[in-house]
């Protein structure tokens, strides 16, 4: 591990001007490339106290052995040079894109004497017109097959073309009218090129001209009683319309735009792009990237723009690019796009209308792509085994933790405090053994005390089961005094009798200390404990002053993050269910014209439905947003309604059982007093 001070430039060496910098390791390999409006100010951030740096940045500067820079005139030049260096050096600490070159394009080789329509992948070539990208090659072939009826352009390879020219006989497409057969000089090179240009114009979205021309020719043929020709033109129009139906209109104003959406978590991000030409989606592409550096959504968008348009020029860069967040600063990026296109480009975040709705569709595609990527990654047995081994090595365990339990606390400003327990076995979620807890006995805003209570209750039940039955592994399904068997139908012990090898808590050092203290008080010393802090993804161990920092590419860290996120999701779901039952049976639900916002305002103003029922119409009118007519309607509805019975909180969906093992109920025994701990900083109002 290198000391950044050993290669830090001397004061005054770094210029105060725009530029691009490179960090190199001891083997002179470039490991990071960045750009800056002021090289002096930007590089100074890397050479401060290591404790103040983000873990990913700290890892980069300690891996590097030298830094160098290149001064440029403007920020736009810096953006272009940064892109060139990233493509050239592929630095390990920069954002890395995957699956970028795998998408097929419909290409027209306008750089040849007789242009050819074909499917192309990989880097784009000069003089070739590209349309797409498409998700599948068969989608391109279906489109081409329809259009060749109207635009019979050459599609054969160079070898087939030369062989046909040598023998004087065209291929099958030439015989059935789907190729003009330039190989046997049925059409001149000039006419064939003009036909190829018309094909490109149609694919670019200028479809109305050709449809109107064919419809006019069809009408003229019918008037001249050339019915066979009219029927052929009719079929041509049908083929064009069928090809157009493959890409429905999404923007009514025939906009040319690219829409970019990002779905991300702490470790990875999925990028999706929709290419809209003439108001129709002409292509789609996407990729997944590892976030090996600390990066914002705006920075991810900037990298996506570099990847997308770094090698494009002219009409390939649309007039409008819609993104979820603007890069900072946005002016150099917009100027760079304008230079690539040769005319003005609008880079903005859609705020309303059809474009915002379409952006939401692109965002959902990005989220689905990220979920699919994670699912494929989690389903790999080899990857899961490696993740468990990495966790065991990082935490100093004797063996891989085959059963992991994770706990999280959730509340809304101290109300409806609940906790969740999720179980992963062999790296996969075992949802039938999920549990949920209701926190009682003190203010729920103290996450540390809540965590102590949950761990105590869970493992007290484990000890009770163990004491009642002996070691569960030795009990072969014997009958208990109350008639309850020790094991389920699949031979597994019931409820809390099966202990984990590792307990993971959502939080940092205070939560870990509380969990370990609970186990110590119960006399349990064979279960490991760790915590995963969400802000920096650090792994905390009991009685350790410094966290364990796993590499960002670690499969072990990825598994811990999945376990923690699942516990957080499960806790939030339960907390929202409890909160929603307060209003589920409210008589205000049946008041016509009274929405959720105004119902909440009424409850907040009066404190309860009972007090609202006794209020006068004038008092109800004092609530902001409530007019006299609405107040009268509310008063009449409450006068007719009888006091509602308490709503029953039934178990639905994935929510399984509470910690007492009975669906939809909670323990009546309040939590025991526990030593006070340091509250963890709440992440927003709702955890």
Q: Class by helix and strand content?
A: alpha+beta
Per DSSP, what share of the residues sits in E-state strands of 2 or more residues? 15-25%
Average pLDDT taken over every residue:
77
Number of strands: 20
Largest beta-sheet details: 8 strands, mixed
Helix share bin: 25-40%
Please report the distance between the alpha carbons of the first and last residues. 38 Å
What is the count of DSSP helices, taking H or I runs of 4+ residues? 20
Quick overview of this protein structure:
The protein is of the alpha+beta class and 687 residues long. The chain has 20 helices and 20 strands.
Polypeptide structure, described:
This protein is of the alpha+beta class and 687 residues long. The chain has helices at 39-44, 55-63, 75-89, 137-147, 158-167, 172-175, 189-203, 208-223, 227-245, 297-309, 331-341, 353-378, 381-395, 447-469, 509-521, 555-584, 596-606, 609-613, 617-621, 628-640; strands at residues 19-24, 30-36, 66-71, 96-97, 105-108, 117-120, 129-131, 257-264, 268-277, 280-290, 320-322, 346-348, 403-412, 415-425, 428-429, 435-438, 502-506, 528-533, 538-540, 657-658. Strands 13, 14, 15, 16, 17, 18, 19 and 20 form an 8-stranded mixed sheet that branches. A 6-stranded mixed sheet has the order 4-10-9-8-11-12. A 3-stranded antiparallel sheet has the order 2-1-3. Strand 9 (268-277) and strand 10 (280-290) form a beta hairpin. The protein is globular.
């Amino acid at each position: 591990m290198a000391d950044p001070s050993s290669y830090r430039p001397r004061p005054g060496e770094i210029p105060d001007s725009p530029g691009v910098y490179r960090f190199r390791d001891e083997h002179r390999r470039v490991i990071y490339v960045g750009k800056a409006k002021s090289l002096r100010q930007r590089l100074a951030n890397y050479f401060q106290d290591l404790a103040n740096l983000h873990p990913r940045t700290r890892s980069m500067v300690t891996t590097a052995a030298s830094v160098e820079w290149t001064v440029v005139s403007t920020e736009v030049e810096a953006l272009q040079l940064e892109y060139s260096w990233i493509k050239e050096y592929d630095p390990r600490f920069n954002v890395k894109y995957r699956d970028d070159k795998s998408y097929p394009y419909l290409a027209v080789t306008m750089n040849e004497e007789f242009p050819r329509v074909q499917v192309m992948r990989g880097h784009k070539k000069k003089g070739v017109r590209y349309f797409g990208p498409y998700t599948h090659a068969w989608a391109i072939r279906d489109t081409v097959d329809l259009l060749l009826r109207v635009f019979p352009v050459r599609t054969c390879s160079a070898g087939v073309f030369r062989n046909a020219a040598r023998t004087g006989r065209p291929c099958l497409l030439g015989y059935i009218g789907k190729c003009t057969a330039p190989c046997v000089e049925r059409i001149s090179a000039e006419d064939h090129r003009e036909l190829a240009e018309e094909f490109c114009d149609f694919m670019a979205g200028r479809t109305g001209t050709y449809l109107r021309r064919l419809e006019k020719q069809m009408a003229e043929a019918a008037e001249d009683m050339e019915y066979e020709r009219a029927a052929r033109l009719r079929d041509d129009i049908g083929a064009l319309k069928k090809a157009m139906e493959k890409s429905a209109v999404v923007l009514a104003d025939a906009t040319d735009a690219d829409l970019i959406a990002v779905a991300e978590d702490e470790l990875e991000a999925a990028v999706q792009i929709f290419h809209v030409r003439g108001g129709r989606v002409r292509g789609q592409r996407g990729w997944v990237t590892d976030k090996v550096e600390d990066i914002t959504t705006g920075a991810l968008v900037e990298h996506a723009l570099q990847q997308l348009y770094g090698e494009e020029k002219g009409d390939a860069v649309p007039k409008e690019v819609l993104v979820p967040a603007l890069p900072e600063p946005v002016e150099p990026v917009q100027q760079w796009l304008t230079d690539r296109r040769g005319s003005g480009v609008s880079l903005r975040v859609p705020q309303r209308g059809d474009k915002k709705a379409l952006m939401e569709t692109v965002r959902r595609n990005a989220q689905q792509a990220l979920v699919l990527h994670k699912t494929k990654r989690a389903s790999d047995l080899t990857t899961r085994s490696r993740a468990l081994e990495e966790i065991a090595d990082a935490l100093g365990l004797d063996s891989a933790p085959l059963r992991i339990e994770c706990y999280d606390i959730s509340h809304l400003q101290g109300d409806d405090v609940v906790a969740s327990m999720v179980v992963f076995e062999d790296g996969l979620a075992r949802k039938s053994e999920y549990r949920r807890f209701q926190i009682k006995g003190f203010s729920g805003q103290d996450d540390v005390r809540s965590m102590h209570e949950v761990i105590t209750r869970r493992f007290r039940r484990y000890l009770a089961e163990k004491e009642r039955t002996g070691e569960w592994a030795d009990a072969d399904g014997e009958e208990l005094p109350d008639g309850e068997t020790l094991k389920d139908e699949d031979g597994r012990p019931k409820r809390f009798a099966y202990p984990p090898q590792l307990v993971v808590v959502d939080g940092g050092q205070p939560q870990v200390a509380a969990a370990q203290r609970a186990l110590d008080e119960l006399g349990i010393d064979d279960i490991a404990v760790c915590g995963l802090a969400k802000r920096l993804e650090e792994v905390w161990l009991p009685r350790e002053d410094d966290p364990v920092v796993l590499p960002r590419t670690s499969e072990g860290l990825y598994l811990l993050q999945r376990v923690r996120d699942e516990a957080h999701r499960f806790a939030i779901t339960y907390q929202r269910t409890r909160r929603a039952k307060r209003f589920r049976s409210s008589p205000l639900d049946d008041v016509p014209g009274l929405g959720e916002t105004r119902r909440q305002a009424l409850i907040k103003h009066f404190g309860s439905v009972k007090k609202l029922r006794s209020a006068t119409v004038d008092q109800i009118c004092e609530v902001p947003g409530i007019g006299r007519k609405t107040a009268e309607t509310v008063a009449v509805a409450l006068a007719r309604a009888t006091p509602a019975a308490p709503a029953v909180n039934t178990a639905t969906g994935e929510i399984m059982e509470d910690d007492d093992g009975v669906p939809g109920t909670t323990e009546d025994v309040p939590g025991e007093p526990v030593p006070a701990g340091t509250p963890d900083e709440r992440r927003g109002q709702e955890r």
